[in-house]
What does this fold into?
Amino acid sequence: MGELLVTGGLISQAQLDEALKRQSQVDEHIGSILLELGYLTMEQLLDFLSSQFGVPAVNLFDMDIDPGVAAMIAPERIKEKKILPLATKSGRLTLAMVDPGDLRTISELEFRLGKKIDPVVVPSFMMDTAIEALMAEPSGKISGKDIERSRSAFAEEDGRSGIKIDSLLSKAADVNASDLILTAGAPPSLRIANTLRRLAAPPLTPADCESFAREMMPGEVWSVFEKQSEVDFSVTYPDISRFRVNAYRQRGSVALAIRPIIESIPPASELNLPSWFMDFALRPTGLIMVSGPAGHGKSTSLYAMVDMINNNRRSNIISLEDPVEYLHKHKKSNISQREVGRDTASFHSGLKSVLRQAPDVIVIGEMRDRESFEIALQASYTGHLVMTTMHAANSTVAIENIIQRFEPHRQHLIRMMLADAMIVSVAQRLVPLKDGSGRVLAMERLINSSRVKNIIREGKTHQIRSQMQQGTEDFTSIDIELARLCKKGRITLEDGMIYASDALYYSDLARTR
It folds into this structure.
């Protein structure tokens, strides 16, 4: 396409080279990039697309989307094929397409809808923005001006590269992104439903990223960052949201991983947390472990349990967090939330003194080192309820991760303690919903029954998955939960496959009726 534009005299070879360089950074169609760089006007781009495909080109920014017409095609199909129904008339459907030469899709839709399809072409970036706006508005009622504003809302003049941190944070909150990633050499990026999406903006410079970091960090946090080259902190923008931030250096420049924090904890039903999981929160003693990859809702599940305790028990709850995410109010329980780096030097130092603070419940944001594991085990073994998160692939690996952190001569004793103290080990994944509207929780459970206690004591934890693969009262694998969601039509077979522990077993389960 770029070569054709050069041949047609619409752009120069130098402009094409610059656009191709940019394309390697932002993963967008070349026409969209040329438009963003100002090398083409919208009219030129639309005229060019129309002449290439031999169909009319339309500007979605200049028209409104009829919700009734948009509903004619399932949202997941719209997203998959990059198509958008625009209007119907006399048994014909005008269909916006990024590739109007996709005759197979046109033929399938004509057969299914019983209407003749009149394709029109739109630029890829415009279609992406329209689909994003459509997914965010379940009623399907969106206007072209809404689409255009959605695309440009985060790009405001700020004297640097034209992007304000407030606008980026607003964008992340508005689209329910789980993360906002800012690093030099790439455009601002959002993680939405487990997929990293780059915004249609110029690559950030090292000066941009450092300016963002200085703006977000209190003075004392910046001092720590300068000494350590990485720091965790939280920040609140009253009109937007609260955010958890990790700042770090890469290749000599500053980078930021920013996560929006939901101020109020959603109810367990909204989070898809099973009732059996919440019931464990009311146990008086023991160890509850929530594991999974970063960004899959471990902290949310943990603090939903804390809220359950707060609403139903009269307890003294002490939490150690890095940083504090959800702000709990005192209800039936007293809650002291200690932030690592601000209220205590480290998880280890905070845990060393926690037993002197008369806790009934100890919440550890994340167990990271052997000393923390040891104190947590001792506390759960001696009459306290301890709840924590871990980075582990599944519920059985989490157990072995704890044991393997200790010297070989101590591992037998740790197995004994863990077998007696553990209540439940769960592992979770957040899987994209089939309709593209968000993510749904799938949770593996390993309840510490008498049988499981014996397996842990004997050092045969690895046998749990093979012996109990079909599912039992004390073990339900992530594969079974993913297959259940697939059968209900909530996730696709392919998305479930990505998060399955045993892809073949999951696939067989999901296809069984």
User: Anything to note?
Assistant: Residues 298-312 form the longest helix (15 residues).
